[in-house]
Design the sequence.
């Protein structure tokens, strides 16, 4: 049984002095919303000092932070720490086109190489580096102040004890311990999640990763994340075991989650029975029905063959869709189409035909129009050095083959090169987006 979310379970309490304020169990937003104001989600605790704000999840692990000093880049920007223990800087970009380019008001700036075309280098700023490297010291300083402040009445000293206990637990979650926890997450996921589905942006990438299969069908030449291993499916027992381990890892903070990512690169090919049973078991075990965060989402990757049921695969995707649509999830399936130009597919070393891509794209339109709780999205590649037919073929699909502008069925354009922001590619993106009749955004590769 999930814990009750009543105030008795996570009561909000606060302690203020002229130098700091601690608030336990603050209520943030309980629904993911696209808004230009910096919303914080879930139930969290907060330490605010004269020059920093630190926020902690219900396991007393730091999850967000920002500086309050004059050098902090922008008061509405902040740092988020992922379950994979990466710090991510959320910027407004100083770039007016962030929402148009990504579909989100804040741009995640990452510390590792990625394919982003926009954003700056916030981690090189001293004010940002100070928080990333010294948040643990800030907690220590606050602990010293709380201990010094010896109150006279029993009530006050009992209250002080509650805050000391919180600080003690937060201090136990050292950078090393958080890194170890991330390693445990990678272990249960059979390796790090090197790329999250682009649709996970709808829940600010707050997903619990449940690996139900490994590998993919194609082993495309251009792909950096592929493994040599043949595609394989995890047994029901293995998946149940993973769910139990994940439940323990996410601990008390699981009430702040309501979404899963079925991994890894082609979970759709795992077949109806595996997918439905994994989704239902996870929903029940993680207590999503009673979570603080409302509206469950299910994310996975698929492929042309797993969606179109290539003969000889285990797949039964068409039969799966009716059942998926009835699940207590909004399901997002992201399909890597890459190009509808044969020369480009050959150039990329993707072993499918342009005819298959076109058929799949049209079938995706049908699914999106038929199932209210399912959205199939697609990825296409962008680069300066692709064959000339790539962009005309893309426009033929997203403009000529679609009679009216649509609000569902996002197409993501993914720059091929890592750490090579290019004005030309950004310019091309804006041109394609303007002409496309489906929502069209950049895909910034992000790991968990
Ligand atoms: S692009 Fe997708 S299908 Fe191709 S090798 Fe990479 S993971 Fe596999």
Sequence:
């Amino acid at each position: 049984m999930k814990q009750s979310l009543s105030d008795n379970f996570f009561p909000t309490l606060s302690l203020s002095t002229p130098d700091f304020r601690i608030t336990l169990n603050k209520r943030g937003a309980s629904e993911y919303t696209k808004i230009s104001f910096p919303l914080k989600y879930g139930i969290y605790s907060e330490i605010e000092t004269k020059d920093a704000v630190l926020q902690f999840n219900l396991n007393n692990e730091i999850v967000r932070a920002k500086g309050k000093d004059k050098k902090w880049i922008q008061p509405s920007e902040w740092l988020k720490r992922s379950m994979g223990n990466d710090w991510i800087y959320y910027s407004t970009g100083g770039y007016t086109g962030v929402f148009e380019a990504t579909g989100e008001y804040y741009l995640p700036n990452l510390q590792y190489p990625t394919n982003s075309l926009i954003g700056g280098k916030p981690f090189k700023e001293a004010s940002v580096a100070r928080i990333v490297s010294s948040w643990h010291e800030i907690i220590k300083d606050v602990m010293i102040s709380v201990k010094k402040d010896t109150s006279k009445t029993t009530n006050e000293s009992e209250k002080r004890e509650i805050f000391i206990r919180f600080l003690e637990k937060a201090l136990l979650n050292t950078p090393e311990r958080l890194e170890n926890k991330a390693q445990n997450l990678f272990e249960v996921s059979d390796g790090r999640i090197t790329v999250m589905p682009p649709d996970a942006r709808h829940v600010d990438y707050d997903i619990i990763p449940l690996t139900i299969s490994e590998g993919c069908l194609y082993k495309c030449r251009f792909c950096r994340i592929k493994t040599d291993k043949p595609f394989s499916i995890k047994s029901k027992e293995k998946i149940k075991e993973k769910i139990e381990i994940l439940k323990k890892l996410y601990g008390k903070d699981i009430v702040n989650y309501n979404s899963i990512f079925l991994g890894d690169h082609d979970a759709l090919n795992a077949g109806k029975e595996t997918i439905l049973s994994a989704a239902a078991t996870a929903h029940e075990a993680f207590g999503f029905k009673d979570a603080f965060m409302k509206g469950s989402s299910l994310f996975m990757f698929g492929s042309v063959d797993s969606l179109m049921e290539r003969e000889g695969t285990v797949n039964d995707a068409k039969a799966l869709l009716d059942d998926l649509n009835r699940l207590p999830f909004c399901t997002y399936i992201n399909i890597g189409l890459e190009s509808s130009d044969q020369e480009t597919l050959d150039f990329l070393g993707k072993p499918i035909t342009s005819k298959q891509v076109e058929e799949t794209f049209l079938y995706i339109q049908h699914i999106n129009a038929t199932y209210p709780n399912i959205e199939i999205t697609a990825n296409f590649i962008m680069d300066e050095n692709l064959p000339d037919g790539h962009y005309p073929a893309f426009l033929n699909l997203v403009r000529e083959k679609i009679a009216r502008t649509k609000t569902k069925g996002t197409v993501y354009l993914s720059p091929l090169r890592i750490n090579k922001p290019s004005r030309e590619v950004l310019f091309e993106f804006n041109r394609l987006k303007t002409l496309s009749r489906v929502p069209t955004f950049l895909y910034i590769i992000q790991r968990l």
